[in-house]
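A reminder from the course coordinator: this example appears on the midterm review sheet, so study it carefully.

Given structure:
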């Protein structure tokens, strides 16, 4: 029994959850313990862009008490895409086997992490999908926001040919080997665009990509950083990807 248990523990991959933050003080204190409670092999990396509300300082203090929490401080708000690239580099310089992307604003439930871990056993990239099998699993969005997101995914599918129901979502898990195939110097996009670009690169390489259902809940605290610029960036990137081959 003891041997079996030890074998089980040894088999668990070391995982890093990358959480970019900008002014998430209203969310982060509850969110971090919820993530860590899911699994003992999970660690957290917060990439904070000099949040004026003190998110970075708060997490910095947590790192002193808990070795499973890490932080990267960046001077100013530089966008989600480059925050993730910094997190990917951190992970690849260390021995993490699974590398997650996750929002800090309560939209992504920590309860889903164990399903991601299970599905990662047979996939190079696991995508959390809000639109799997024709169902819409989004809580508290108004119809304009839903149409924008659903429409962006429809457009991405038609133009690029990628068969995924949700290529714009930001709750995903890469295997280390999948992440190593990405050319991190070339990833320049942001927001939704970054999500489409990374998934497209792995899909083109014919890596194993699996979608799992998640329930996405709109943030109830703090403010969204979504902008018109992010939307137009995605519109043009998708066309570029179509011809990138
Ligand atoms: N480090 C860093 N984090 C960011 C930046 N912009 C957004 N974030 C974080 O990225 C996550 C997602 O950002 P949101 O503002 O929720 O954007 P969104 O999820 O696309 O939009 P909503 O659906 O309106 O919430 C949150 O944890 C933010 O704090 C940025 O420029 N730098
Ligand atoms: Mg959000």
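Designed residues:
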């Amino acid at each position: 029994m003891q041997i079996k248990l030890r074998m089980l523990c040894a088999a668990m991959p070391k995982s890093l959850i990358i959480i970019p933050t900008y002014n998430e003080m209203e969310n982060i204190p509850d969110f971090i313990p919820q993530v860590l409670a899911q699994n003992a092999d999970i660690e957290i990396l917060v990439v904070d862009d000099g949040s004026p509300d003190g998110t970075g300082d708060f997490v910095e203090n947590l790192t002193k008490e808990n070795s499973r929490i890490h932080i990267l401080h960046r001077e100013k708000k530089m966008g989600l895409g480059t925050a993730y690239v910094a997190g990917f580099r951190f992970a690849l310089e260390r021995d993490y086997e699974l590398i997650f992307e996750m929002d800090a604003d309560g939209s992504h439930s920590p309860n889903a992490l164990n399903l991601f871990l299970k599905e990662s056993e047979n996939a190079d990239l696991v995508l959390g999908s809000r639109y799997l099998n024709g169902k819409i699993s989004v809580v508290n969005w108004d119809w304009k926001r839903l149409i924008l997101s659903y429409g962006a995914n429809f457009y991405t599918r038609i133009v690029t040919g990628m068969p995924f129901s949700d290529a714009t979502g930001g709750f995903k898990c890469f295997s280390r080997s999948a992440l190593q195939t990405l050319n991190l110097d070339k990833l320049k996009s942001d927001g939704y665009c970054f999500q489409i670009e990374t998934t497209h690169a792995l899909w083109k390489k014919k890596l194993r990509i699996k979608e799992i259902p998640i329930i996405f809940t709109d943030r109830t605290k703090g403010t969204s950083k979504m902008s018109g610029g992010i939307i137009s960036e995605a519109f043009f990137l998708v066309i570029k990807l179509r011809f990138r081959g």
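The radius of gyration is 17 Å. The first strand starts at residue 15 and ends at 21.
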